[in-house]
Amino acid sequence: MNSIFELFQYQFFNNAVFAAIMASITCGIIGSYIVARRIVFISGGITHASFGGIGIAWYMGLNPILGAALFGVLSAFGIEWLSKKTDVRQDSVIGILWALGMALGIIFIYMTPGYAPNLMSFLFGNILTVSSLDLFLLLGLSILTILVFAMFLKPILYVAFDEEFAKTQRIPVQFISYLMIALVALAIVLNIRVVGIILVISFLTIPQTIANMFTKDFKRMIFGSIGFGLLGSFIGLLVSYEINAPSGATIIFSFVMLFVIAKLVQLSLKAIRRREGIKEAK
Amino acid sequence: MNKLLELKSINAAYDDKLVLKDVDLVVNQNDFVGIIGPNGGGKTTLLKVILGILKPISGEIHVNGSSIGYLPQINQIDKKFPISVQDVVLSGLMGVKKLFGRYSPENRTRANELMNQMGILHLKNKNIGELSGGQLQRVFLCRAIISDPQLLILDEPDTYVDSNFEGELYDILDQLNDHIAIVIVSHDVGTICSHVKTIACVNQTLCYHDSNIISQEQLKAYNCPIDLITHGEVPHRVLKHH
Questions:
Q1: Ranges under pLDDT 50 in chain A
Q2: Which chain B residues touch A160 with a CB distance below 8 Å?
Q3: Please, are residues B155 and B80 in contact by the beta-carbon 8 Å criterion?
Q4: pTM for the whole thing?
């Protein structure tokens, strides 16, 4: 146990803990929206499309995360805009954007002369190497997300539930949809540093799915997701340090373990309830 | 008569396919209009134009008075969405509350009253996924009328419910019609015609029948491909020769 507290002497570990907290908050809130609205596939598309932004920014000598943010938000707006057109098959378009982003990213990174960045850190993330700019951006996004959801929780929920009805009530449905998809894109991009492109989708869906097992209330689902996010990322962080493996992978692995445990708990709760029901009936 | 809604020579289309052609419609206070017509004839499109969801390519729409209450087709709803019955009912007030509004104790009391009237108060904290089709329809009806609209629009409320609830639904609507004008779209021509006061038949064009009895001549004149409806001692419908 002693070694855990010794870890806090290191700056990199404090940064990692801070990043894990911010990631759990942003992914907990935005992920609940993604799961409730069933836009997991759209989110996967945005994630991979943003890799194109990373490549282009790298080629131009800019901060890759800022490039990814711009690229991610623009492709999110593109998908949102296309989804309003009835004659477009949305999932096919997402598939194209998904692959295009990855291809552009690889091409531009290889075209850049000199030192090629460690692709693995973008694909799988490393919470132990987050920079202070990354942390600053994550903090800003956490505050923004909390503010937006605290002020507009009901309209966001109602638009997500029944967009047509919301339109008949003459509330700015389009504004809310674009605001939300932009927040989704930003949450994805800023968390790429923490868990990487390939794994970020699980940070946005596994804690939410666990929370959804125990509550059907949107607000409780958000708090539950943040809780499971924190638990899973701390376990993953410690395992990553112990076995010296990329933190993204160990965090996701601990999420899946939590998921399995939660499923077993849920099943045994159901079995107990059923047995009690039979006893009462007798 | 107090005009609540007026459509003047509306043309509406999806992409380049004209769905509504030169449609006029007036809905007055206390009206109970049944909209019938074949599939793809433009019934739902007409509702979308009235509700402001679809912008017509030409024509005028005038809506007087307070907001319009709307009950959508129930199969459009994601029944696994994490939202409670109470929240769905309260969401009917979002037009009044706008973005920053908070629900007052009066709002909650009103929601409870409505749920009580519809016999779903005991379900108020349940998730909508736990409800039956008929219960869900009542929830959406509560949502549609909680803002006290002068006009209520229902899109096929009698699908996915048993005939038992269908009867109750029309009883509720008859009561509501004392102070709310109602426009209802339905496939079930037989049932709808014994409750509504007037009928509009939509098949690209709209023809308005100023009673709930349609004669064969009228059908022929307007080319309405529906069954012929009459009212008698015994509930029945008369089909044209075939």
A1: none
A2: 81
A3: no
A4: 0.86
